[in-house]
């Protein structure tokens, strides 16, 4: 079971990396409250490494997808 | 305790530079309302000076800009200025906004124990994207603005007399309006990343303690 979880987690990492590689403009940097803001390449390295910053980048992506697919994001946006 | 604002303004990396630049809108609003303000810059952003300032001025409203953990907030570079088990009792009965990652997880809870104060902060990392083109002129950065204006809404709303909960709601509505604004304009490559980041901050922003507390 935990091996399967790890595989899914690796797949998700790869998905997030592919998305960042393909879509993120190179002039954007992400500040996450750690010492230095991250370039596109640095974000990818952290996701690959699975460290604290990388984990949060993946979680941000997952939370966003969950909110989009469940309709929660648009429900909240349309409430204001 | 007296009415007044203490605001930390580190400038030790690009993120804190941005937070400090955008904090000008907060201090301007405090000045407009006649609220006494103490800005704490890098040279005083260490534990000893921070404690001295809090005890001496005893202002009821504190805004932290800076890196954080679940149980601490940093000042200049790696200097811890507020930490569970060290000096969180100094925040008793004060209203705090911490623009610092994760600080609401434990620090926010401990700061508001047995207190009439409130702690508005984040249970995840607070994030924002910046356009590198504007790194030396943060106020011209329209990407960062989308994140930092709603975040500024918290202290500005408190200064205007709203409660902690009302200020949290005002800020979250501003986040949602920004998401709506971006989704309605022709799609740019950065759109999904900005929306994702704004949603992160929306989900992660919480009020601990007395949500009726006012400045």
- Output the number of helix runs of chain A: 4
Topology of chain A as a string of helices (H) and strands (E)? HEHHH
Mind describing the biggest β-sheet of chain B?
6 strands, mixed
CATH classification, class level of chain B: Alpha Beta
Using DSSP, what is the number of strands of chain A? 1
Annotation, overall tally of beta strands of chain B: 10
| N-end to C-end Cα span of chain B | 11 Å
CATH architecture grouping of chain B:
3-Layer(aba) Sandwich
Q: Please, how many helices of chain B?
A: 7
**Average of per-residue pLDDT values of chain B:** 96
Per CATH, what is the topology of chain B? Rossmann fold
Question: How many distinct folded domains of chain B?
Answer: 1
User: Between the first and last Cα atoms of chain A, what is the distance in angstroms?
Assistant: 42 Å
Assign the CATH superfamily of chain B. Answer: Flavodoxin domain
Percentage of helical residues of chain B?
Answer: 40-55%
Oligomer: heterodimer
Task: Describe the overall structure.
The complex is a heterodimer of chains A (80) and B (215). Chain A has 80 residues and is mainly alpha-helical. Chain A has one domain. Chain A is 72% helix and 5% strand. Chain A contains 4 helices and 1 strand; from the N terminus they run H-E-H-H-H. In chain A, helix 1 runs antiparallel to helix 2. With 215 residues, chain B is an alpha/beta fold. Chain B is globular. In chain B, helix 2 (24-32) runs parallel beside helix 5 (142-159), helix 5 runs antiparallel to helix 6 (164-184) and helix 6 (164-184) packs antiparallel against helix 7. In chain B, the strands form 2 sheets. In chain B, strands 2-1-3-7-8-10 form a 6-stranded mixed β-sheet, sandwiched between helices. Chain B has a 3-stranded antiparallel β-sheet with strand order 4-5-6. In chain B, strand 7, helix 4 and strand 8 form a beta-alpha-beta unit. The mean pLDDT of chain B is 96. Helix content of chain B is 40%, strand content 22%. Chain B has one domain: Rossmann fold (3-Layer(aba) Sandwich). In chain B, 51% of the residues are buried. The chains are: A mainly alpha (80), B alpha/beta (215). The interface between A and B is medium-sized, with 27 and 38 residues. Strand 1 of chain A pairs antiparallel with strand 9 (128-131) of chain B, so a sheet runs across the interface.
């Amino acid at each position: 079971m935990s091996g399967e979880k790890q595989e899914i987690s690796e797949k998700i990492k790869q998905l997030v990396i592919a998305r960042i590689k393909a879509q993120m403009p190179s002039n954007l940097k992400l500040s996450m409250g750690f010492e230095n803001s991250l370039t596109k390449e640095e974000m990818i390295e952290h996701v690959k490494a699975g460290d604290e910053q990388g984990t949060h980048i993946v979680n941000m992506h997952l939370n966003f997808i969950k909110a989009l697919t469940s309709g929660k994001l648009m429900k909240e946006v349309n409430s204001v | 305790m007296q009415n007044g604002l203490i605001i930390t303004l580190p400038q030790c990396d690009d993120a804190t530079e941005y937070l400090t630049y955008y904090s000008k809108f907060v201090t301007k609003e405090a000045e407009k309302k006649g609220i006494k303000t103490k800005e704490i810059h890098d040279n005083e952003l260490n534990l000893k000076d921070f404690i001295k300032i809090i005890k001496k001025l005893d202002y009821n409203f504190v805004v932290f800009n800076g890196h954080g953990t679940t149980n601490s907030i940093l000042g200049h570079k790696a200097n811890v200025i507020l930490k569970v088990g060290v000096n969180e009792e100094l925040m008793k009965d004060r209203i705090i906004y911490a623009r610092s990652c994760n600080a609401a997880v434990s620090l926010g809870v401990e700061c508001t124990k047995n207190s009439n104060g409130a702690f508005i902060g984040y249970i995840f990392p607070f994030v924002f994207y910046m356009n590198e083109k504007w790194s030396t002129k943060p106020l011209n950065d329209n990407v960062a603005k989308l994140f930092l204006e709603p975040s500024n809404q918290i202290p500005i709303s408190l200064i205007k007399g709203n409660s902690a909960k009302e200020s949290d709601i005002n800020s979250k509505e501003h986040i949602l309006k920004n998401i709506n604004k971006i989704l309605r304009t022709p799609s740019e490559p950065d759109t999904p990343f900005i929306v994702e980041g704004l949603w992160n901050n929306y989900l992660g922003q919480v009020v601990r303690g007395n949500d009726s507390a006012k400045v």
